[in-house]
Amino acid sequence: MHELSIAQSLFEIVLEEGRRYRLERVNTIRLQIGALAAVVPEALTFSFNMISENSIASGALLEIETVPVVAHCPKCDVLCEVENLVFLCPECGEPLFDIVSGRELSIIGIEGETGEEDGAG
Amino acid sequence: MAQVKVPIVRNILQANERLAAENRRRFDEAGIYVFNLMSSPGAGKTSLLERTIDHLSGRIKMAVIEGDIQTSYDAERIQQKGVQAVQINTDGGCHLDGNMIQQAMDSLDLAHVDLLIIENVGNLVCPAEFNLGEHDKVMIFSVTEGDEKPLKYPLMFQTSSVLLINKIDLLPYVDCDLSKVRDRARQLNGGQEVFEISCRTGEGLEPWFVWLEGKVRERQSRRSARA
Question: Does residue B22 belong to any structural domain of this protein?
Fold first, then answer.
């Protein structure tokens, strides 16, 4: 359900970046979403499509890349991928608190069109 | 038409993160310890607050922000205990966010408060994603919900510093294996404080009160050290 609030925040960022780069259309929005984030990509896309109607981002494709959960083990001083949500070091069994990735909710790029002719700017 | 690719690296929830950081600054300046209480509906959040208020009132000044989709029923339950409480109705929204807390704070007198409890909307998913500026996330899981819940709602268990396992008086009547709950929660969050309690009988609450009072006193001593 909270995908709607996330989509609203995303929409505001897209409009802001769109103004900054003078985009007349946004075709693709690239996102990184951590595997641990409580976000359903379909629900996010659905909400975004609804919110962005009649805007420069109307019909834009959300390209969502899932980021694996990675944590740092302080004892072994290694990074390990957390599989099946077991936050224990596979080497020594210590609990892993230092989550390096997997909670991302980031926009990493947008692709679109400016009103300028090709090569003009 | 010129096609452009624009690289951007921004956290989508940055607006909320900024508000949460502002809230945190206000809490710290006032020397208030704040926890964000989360659980599924009916796990016992308001009952825990009532027990906690009864135990700590007189020694610790408390205030409560109640989040619910509708009604001011919970805030009224708390006010009957003589504690300041403000109700936020999210009107369908499934979680509280930093902005709602900022507005709610303005209707509380926080000058002499030591402990602020934020009771989130009953929901095991969405509240975990939105920071409010709290010092700790505290979750209640009740044994009637089933021992597979840590597996189904990992983010809530992963982000909560404290896990209160409530309704242990009902254990004889439900198929909930406490050791499975503990093991699964430990795999998600090995540093979590776990308390097994019954808000109905009062069993197991003492260690929680001690832990909480310790957190409040720690904030107070930082405040007096600065003064």
Answer: yes
| Tens of pLDDT, residues B89-138 | 988 889 999 999 999 999 999 888 999 999 999 999 999 999 999 999 99
Q: Which domain holds residue B31?
A: 16-218
Beta strands in B90-202, from DSSP E residues, in sequence order: 115-119, 136-142, 162-166, 193-196
Exposure class string for B149-158: b at 16+ Cβ within 10 A, else e: bbeebbbbbb
**CATH code where residue B58 lies:** 3.40.50.300
* A77 inside domain: no
Q: Is residue A54 part of a domain?
A: yes
The string of pLDDT tens digits covering residues A70-117 is 999 989 999 999 988 889 999 998 888 889 999 999 999 999 999 877
> Does a structural domain hold residue B133?
yes
- Min Cα distance A1 → chain B (Å) is 7
Question: For the complex shown, is ipTM > 0.85?
Answer: no
Q: CB neighbours of A97 closer than 8 A, spacing ≥ 6?
A: A71, A87, B189, B190, B191
A83 inside 8 A of chain B by CB? no
Distance of CA B32 to the CA centre of its chain: 14
Number of domains chain A is built from: 1
For residue A111, list chain B residues with Cβ-Cβ distance below 8 A: 3-6
Of the residues B9, B12, B182, the best mutation for testing chain A's interface (the one with the most A CB atoms within 10 Å of its CB) is B12
Strand order in the sheet with B115-119: B84-89, B62-68, B115-119, B33-39, B136-142, B162-166, B193-196
Amino acid at B107: S
Tokens representing A93 are: 């069994």
CATH number at residue A24: 3.30.2320.50
Number of H helices, E strands in chain B: 8, 8
* pTM beyond 0.80: yes
C-alpha–C-alpha distance, residues B135 and B131, integer Å: 10
